[in-house]
Amino acid sequence: MPELFETFPVLHTSRLDLIEITPAHRVDLFRIFTDERVTKYYDVLPLNEESDAQKIMDILAQRYQNKTGIRWGIALKGHKEIIGNLGFNTFTPGHRSTIGYSIEPEYWNKGLITEAIQEIVRYGFNELGVNRIEAEVMPGNTASEKVLDKLGFLHEGLLRQWMYWNGKYNDINMYALLKRDIL
Fold first, then answer.
1. Per the count of CB atoms within 10 A, which of 93, 105, 112, 167 is most buried?
2. 3-class DSSP string for the chain
3. Domain extents for the chain?
4. Fold for domain 3-133?
5. What is the pTM of this model?
């Protein structure tokens, strides 16, 4: 990954700060991922104990350390508490990345996740130099599909039994945005 990945990149939008997820956010992640509305279309089962949030944090930290992914906490401008998270789950330098995102239901339908995704897309194309950004969406997650449509992602098709999660194979809708699509 580019040298700028040596320091965690904090990003800003008009209403949000996209910040590094730290141990202080463990309770926030626990709150986010205990809500079944958040995890319904996310490949994380609702958490049972706060220590389960630490496991998620460890996975995210490992991806960042290995330079294979990066995940930001979503905080309202000027606040420390996170209300969601998003980032690049995978990253192939100079080629492509896969994004993932979640936000607490209290903040749905306010344009916040759209704003956050738009900023990491900008970062991915301009700073990381990727050419393609993908989003894998479980069938039925129409809210996520609408966000991606609004941002110019193209629905490329249904990938049958693409993901194994929660003891079964799941179909995935593949969305993608190419750098040339936004120029």
1. 112
2. CCHHHHCCCCEECCCEEEEECCHHHHHHHHHHHCCHHHHCCCCCCCCCCHHHHHHHHHHHHHHHHCCCCEEEEEEECCCCCCCEEEEEEEEECCCEEEEEEEECHHHCCCCHHHHHHHHHHHHHHHCCCCCEEEEEECCCCHHHHHHHHHCCCEEEEEEEEEEEECCEEEEEEEEEEEHHHCC
3. 3-133
4. Aminopeptidase (3.40.630)
5. 0.94
